[in-house]
Amino acid sequence: RVVRQSKFRHVFGQPVKADQMYEDIRVSKVTCDSSFCAVNPKFVAIIVESGGGGAFIVLPLAKTGRVDKNHPLVTGHTAPVLDIDWCPHNDNVIASASEDTTVMVWQIPDYVPVRNITEPVVTLEGHSKRVSIISWHPTARNVLLSAGCDNLVILWNVGTGEMLLALDDMHTDLIYNVGWNRNGSLLVTTCKDKKVRVIDPRKQQIIAEKTKPHDGTRPIRAIFVADGKIFTTGFSRMSERQLGLWDLNNFEEPIALQEMDTSNGVLLPFYDADSSIVYLCGKGDSSIRYFEITDEAPYVHYLNTYSSKEPQRGMGFMPKRGLDVSKCEIAR
Q: Which of 40, 55, 159, 271 could make a disulfide contact with 75, Cβ separation 3.0–4.6 Å?
């Protein structure tokens, strides 16, 4: 067969129409490799610029259009907010991590509040430097992970505000990203010491690690894809952007390694486990590429690219239950 069989040969991207957009949002100018934007079936949250402290704005998905200059913000941090993440089990709960070393968890009301939300439900203190990564546990309720520039990964019980465990002696340098596997039994982390580590948080030990999955010096990102494989994005020695697919049972050699282009933005991977498609977006890029991951060579199949006129400043990935399946939408 000349053409590979695939359900996704004709996947295409489509921007929303002008009346469905939000306008006049002052996106934060902090230089941080996080996605700046988080979305769920009710709200979209975006980290915004704010004088003296850090803030993010929460907008209901139902109410699009021009955003009022005085729209209430979520302000409680004393330094810029670096990452936000919606709770997967409760659409009204969001966590934020900040340069002020704290993590705060917020309850967002269904109505648009009149004034700024300044009181978090709980403030989690335990990091000694800025906290740049935050991620809810995918299956266990009230479990939140945070990782900071103090090379610490901390798991919190949000219900009581207590630290469940701290993984402190595993990373020797700045942590670039942390990802859960599908049921939350393992973590994958990438670090400035050029290692990708797979950690079992219950045993508190590293069960696999790979040094230099990509030869370049720029940041690496890694996520779990189906059946325990790991997908990475990074840079080659010639500063070309690469993607890699790795098997935990044989971590030495990649299953697939592809060069893409020579742009210098870090590629953020978003993975959809149901269709096993990875979407790659980079800040400053004006395109989003998508690849299908399969069990047959060449394992990572390029599907298509969505291109826009404007460069991207941040990305958020809608959970499956927020999609309009009657229009055959598979990702937003």
A: 55
Question: The tokens 């002696």 sit on which residue?
Answer: 169
CB 316 within 8 A of CB 44: yes
Per domain, the residue ranges of the chain are: 15-168
- For residue 87, count CB atoms less than 10 angstroms from its CB and return exposed for 0-12, middle for 13-18, buried for 19 or more: buried
Ramachandran sector of residue 302 (left: φ over 0; alpha: ψ -120 to 50; beta: rest): beta
Mean pLDDT computed over 42-55: 92
Lowest average pLDDT, out of 141-145, 153-157, 209-213, 297-301, goes to: 297-301
pLDDT at residue 32, as a whole number: 85
The tokens for 98 are 């900040």
29: tokens are: 């100018």
> What pTM did the predictor assign?
0.93
Contacts of 158 (CB under 8 A, 6+ apart): 95, 105, 122, 124, 142, 143, 144
Residue 2 confidence (pLDDT) = 67
Tell whether the model's pLDDT for residue 129 goes beyond 90.
yes
Residue 159, amino acid = G
The fold of the 15-168 domain, in CATH, is Methylamine Dehydrogenase; Chain H (2.130.10)
DSSP string, 221-240: EEEE-GGG-EEEEEE-TTS-
Q: Any idea what DSSP says for residue 75?
A: E
Distance of alpha carbon 195 from alpha carbon 231, whole angstroms: 14
Residue 270 neighbours by CB distance under 10 Å: 18
322 forms beta bridges with none
